[in-house]
Amino acid sequence: xxxxxxxxxxxxxxxxxxxxIIESHKNGIxxxxxxxxxxxxxxxxxSLAKKFRTLAVGIxxxxxxxxPIHPNVPSLVNDKGYFHxxxxxxxxxxxxxxxxxxxAQINEFYRxxxxxxxxxxxxxxxxTEPVNSIVKVLADEYKLPVRQLYKDKKSMNKLEFCSKFHxxxxxxxxxxxxxxCARINPIEMMCHPGFVDHHLLKHSSYxxxxxxxxxxxxxxxxxxxxxxxxxxxxxxKDLGFI
Length: 242
Hints:
Blueprint: E1 2-11, H1 15-26, E2 32-35, H2 42-51, E3 56-61, H3 86-92, H4 95-111, E4 119-121, H5 131-142, E5 160-162, H6 172-182, E6 187-191, H7 198-203, H8 208-217, H9 220-228, E7 231-233
Parallel strand pairs: 1-2, 1-6, 1-7, 2-3, 3-4, 5-6
């Protein structure tokens, strides 16, 4: 049996993104999403998640967009209280403050009333150190699986991660390639569907592209292709990672 997890990143980034993710789940192939708890639309995302319980929700740990949850992490923010940019954060961040902020985000997720299925990071920051080591510690502590950015022969999680479906490569042809790969190994496919709203245009350079992704993820041809390939759409929880 072949499996595919389709995870929509950035749940909570804006209401438009939230609605796009829900649409991609209700009428498309998205099975899972990860929530940014420090974003303005996080509570809106949670309210939607509680209505659509079949959508699995994990935690999108974030160090690069918005403001922190923890009240005292000065090395993570600029003089206006916002996280440093992606290119600056790792040069300026204190390791202990990264861990404190991530733990605060995880605890906030639970406080919002959801049970997380897994962890990943905004901009896949856990592909670098020291973030990777910190996330591993927290994953063990909270007993949650983590998005595997690279093949790890020692890991019990044999799920391969695919980030191809993004930007100019967010095409039906790319999706076909991912489906073919899923015939051999279970795959988690990252995606970023969404409807465009004012907040998204103002705060994310990846905006109009989300509509394109949404269209492909909900296209009847996409759904039929996956069915004909006998690929089962699953979540981290379905596959027994938690």
